[in-house]
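task queued by scheduler; priority normal; single chain, no ligands, no partner chains; default sampling; output format set to structure tokens
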Amino acid sequence: MATDNKVQLVEEFAAKLATAKAAFVADYRGLNVDEVNELRGKLRGAGVEYRVVKNTLLRLAAKGTDFECLGDYLQGPTAIAIAQEDPVAPAKVLAEYAKDSKFFELKTAVLEGKILSEGEVKALAELPSREVLLGKMLGSINAPVSNFVGVLAAVPRSLVQVLGAIRDQKAA
């Protein structure tokens, strides 16, 4: 690869890493082209970019970002998945793919400057999506108000039932 292309690639990755929420590093050794394309398609559906990159270029691109701590894990064939939005979606895809594939191995991940172990990535993958968590939170916020409205509505309802029972008793 020409030096100009390498410089351009380093600048491109540095810009992506500067704005990324999470990055996942994997060893793809043993996967064929169809399997890599299948994984890339799943990750693209989750809004994640998956690229194979030279370790030295990735080290240079990560300098000065939260992902500089990846340097120790950049050995052997390396692929990186960069999540700009939700870090849970790529964790789910990669953990599932690593479980199903005997060749694909998730090395590590970085979430907001913190290295995650393989177990932590699996725990992250088991979290519900952001939308589900927001829905649960809104339901929790809304629950006391709706319970209070139910209690307030019970008083007039009980009064109407008592009056109806008195009317039925006098009619009989």
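post-processing summary
- Helices lie at 3-19, 33-45, 55-62, 88-100, 118-126, 130-171.
- The two ends are 98 Å apart (CA to CA).
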